């Protein structure tokens, strides 16, 4: 058996590629079966981002939806269940653009049933005894949160007639027919309530001409957290309802009004029934009058069980390896003794299964989310982590931790892994422990990953969920910092090596965590995140139009305080507190969190002198769904994400590991470097130990308080003395794509007696395509300018340049680019100067330098000088590391 390689955490090699976790995966959802014929279907994503409908066959599967169609809708903006199976096995579905069609699965012929650009449809439910289909309809004739109207409608599949049968409530969810077609059930609620605790369950009698009567309130009058109503094949009505802390399953037998709890002794802290924004959750399925299959959740982890309602007993029919995370639209009855279920396990990706429950249950995989087998020997298994907060109020916080795992590598003794924390959206959603290829991409390379379920997450009980009301932006970001501190202080994670990332509300959590706990996090990546709560509230859609009030206004707080609280909890107005590098990813067509949220955040951070990058994908909406865009976003964030987590020392470590032969990474503080003996360097540590080497790698800021060099590289203190002297002078180089001054016949030379620029010179290198103006900043105005921050200096220099040249031509913004220099004794200002690359002058021996916002005087004496943070990291590694090894991390 080959021995394992020794390499620091974060630098392990892995067979799990970016392509394998993005472009080769598919999304599976919405299993359905015709109770009469037994034919079964599900939805599957295509490579172009569209969704098709697939029939399950005895010997495989068959796509039934032509390629020009996509089974999607945008009801409530998030969309709902897109199709239903009719009694004759045809499929009614909502197509992209929100038209309604019927497809014949045998011929693949599609016919349009109804379509109006102002109307949207979802959550279809067929009447097995007639041609009527229930659906949720959304009317956008007045396309504002106050103007949008929702209805439950009945669609006649024979005549295409559409009747609005319920229209008095503000919101409707999950209409359904009883198996004999005589009754229907639905959920509804009104402004300013939320469905989590205010949804009410009603039933009514169905009349064949397309009307209802005898409407009855079944549950929800006492804010009972009612969710996921479902009819059993015998006509029983099931639903989830909170009793005390957790939501249980209840049953009303045919012909009765009495509610009976479905007993599951021993699962007292389990939650049954999906309570989410998503319309159309299917997390349980009655199979017969005796058996019911359910996927309850305990602290974020699913269990798949079959309940015998006659004997009040239950047993597990799924294992954690295959089915530890079952969410949203995932469970459907196939027969009296079998069920279709979609879920992910600890070591297996999301897949569609058939489970036969009688006797010794049998589980059969019908379709996986990828065609390539996942290398299970590289899988890190999740660990349920529950910590007690140190801050007030004292509370338990839960999450799942994946530690680094790679059968081919070990870390050096004493090394600790960096950590990537992922924050879920919602914010009232949660993250489970199912296998996520992106998580394994990290862990197989030596990173730890924590998916933390902050206060407010569902699937953890009522009190846990309700703790977020009035505290959004506070308790959730505090929970992030509590978890990070707990793992670093307990010696499980590298100090200073924690990054954070999230999507949507998780993106907001990322920004808030970087704002409120700047010293805890080394960097972040935010996808479709919220930066300005008030603007989000002003532009949000109908479904979430009351959400912000509940999230930011604690009980008893007057609504007049809302604007003030929103501003206090908006990262946009605290941008100067974000000191860690940040990557923003956003869809240009995002209607839930508009693009200006990211644009203004990026502008504010840049104005404050921070390190931020914004990447916009025009055709994407809320989050990225098309594989090519997900892949591109992953590539864009790869190296920068790693360097943000590792900070400048990561550059030193990465370079040291790749310089050969015999590179050594110092953990001790070095206070003296002697370079007087040829190519031999003698390093002396603060402990008095000495080491010989041929090359030194440094990072700035350095962990060492002070290092003396022989010969002297330059005294850092000299810089501050110089910039106070009368003859203070600094050269700043501006680089451009084109020599814009020459297009107007200008030489690029200018002179001013007022400053801050005293002279400009054309210092371009035309052969290399480097077009530059060198600006001399000097005198009293220069000294005053250098007392300001980086952004103010930059803006002053550019403003002066515009004053001088704008009368002749428009002036573009300068760019950062690689720019060789042959004047090693010249001072170069780091904030506007081009990036200096390896291979320039060898000054004072073989000292290599890489860092962030470094001392400029030291730069002039070093072989490699880099600025601009993550860009610098990428340039150094590109020069020194094989391309296939360059991607060190993925978020």
Structural notes for this entry:
The chain has 891 residues and is α+β, with helices and mostly antiparallel strands. Among the domains are: 376-645, Rossmann fold; 662-724 and 834-888, FAD/NAD(P)-binding domain (3-Layer(bba) Sandwich), CATH 3.50.50; 729-824, Polyamine Oxidase, Chain A, domain 2. The protein is 17% helix and 30% strand. A hairpin with a 4-residue loop joins strand 22 (284-286) and strand 23 (291-294). Helix 11 (627-646) packs across helix 12 (648-658). The chain is globular. The two termini are 33 Å apart. One of its GO terms (biological process) is proteolysis. Residues 437-631 form the Peptidase S9 prolyl oligopeptidase catalytic domain. It holds the Pfam family PD40.
Shape: globular
Q: What's the gyration radius in Å?
A: 31 Å
Provide the CATH top-level class of the domain at 376-645: Alpha Beta
CATH architecture level-2 label of the domain at 376-645: 3-Layer(aba) Sandwich
Helix proportion range: 10-25%
Task: Give me a quick take on this structure.
The chain is an alpha+beta fold and 891 residues long. It contains 17 helices and 50 strands. Among the domains are: 376-645, Alpha/Beta hydrolase fold, catalytic domain (Rossmann fold, 3-Layer(aba) Sandwich); 662-724 and 834-888, FAD/NAD(P)-binding domain (3-Layer(bba) Sandwich), CATH 3.50.50.60; 729-824, Alpha-Beta Complex (Polyamine Oxidase, Chain A, domain 2), CATH 3.90.660.10.
